[in-house]
Amino acid sequence: MTATSPMHRARLLDRRSFLAGSAASLGALGLAGCATTDGMSLAEASALYGPVPTEKFPIPATDISKVDPKYYRRTVQYASKEAPGTIVVDPRNYYVYRIEEGGLATRYGANVGRDGFRWSGDAYVGRKSEWATWTPPREMIKRQPEVAKWARGMPGGLENPLGARTLHLYQNGAYTLYTIYASSEPDSIGSGITSGCVGLLSQDMIHLYNQTPVKTKVVVLPALS
């Protein structure tokens, strides 16, 4: 065995340190590529927002690359005076919460009303619909004449703006014309684009709908503090 000079040993150590550091860096990159920023793996997110072939109109998988991971459905700590089951809409942060037991809530990412169309207050679910017919209000037809062709109603389906499920919001026995609905546009989540309604990803809306009976209280928080 030949002797190794101090300089050569130092070079070997430097090389080993470099290789170890590189391996660690590559490992970190690999892990980063498999997880979202909120700790949910891409595989888990893909499963959560996968296709729903059993629907009347089969729902395709959501393109989760168009959704900020912070808007994925998850259970979070959420202090509230509201009873479990209550729905809380937070338009300022683009979230909808379903209050659960023990200071928890199921949180969903949402789209909300754009400037000039936002509202706040207490309401309740007066009616529920699956694959509802959509009828544009007169005010919308005036603003957007292209929707006049649906003045007598657009049948349910994948192209229908209300999507697979709709919760119709009432106040004092009267329909407010506002809804929580299923959106098929993943890039709309986290933005203000609607005429006051609130949209969740189709898979999230089905999840919320299945747990929400008629008469459920809905609290819509102010969009601005």
UniProtKB/TrEMBL annotation:
Keywords linked to the UniProt accession: Cell shape, Cell wall biogenesis/degradation, Glycosyltransferase, Hydrolase, Peptidoglycan synthesis, Transferase
Annotated protein name in UniProt: ErfK/YbiS/YcfS/YnhG family protein
Keyword Ligase: no
Pfam families for the chain: YkuD
Gene Ontology, cellular component aspect: extracellular region
Highest taxon of the lineage: Bacteria
Domain L,D-TPase catalytic: 85-221
Lineage of producing organism: Bacteria, Pseudomonadati, Pseudomonadota, Alphaproteobacteria, Hyphomicrobiales
Pathway: Cell wall biogenesis; peptidoglycan biosynthesis
GO MF assignments: glycosyltransferase activity; peptidoglycan L,D-transpeptidase activity
GO biological process per UniProt: cell wall organization; peptidoglycan-protein cross-linking; regulation of cell shape
Source species of the chain: Methylobacterium aquaticum
InterPro entries assigned to the protein according to its UniProt record, in alphabetical order: LD-transpeptidase, LD_TPept_cat_dom, TAT_signal, Transpep_catalytic_dom
SUPFAM superfamilies referenced in this protein's UniProt entry, alphabetically: L,D-transpeptidase catalytic domain-like
UniProt similarity note: Belongs to the YkuD family.
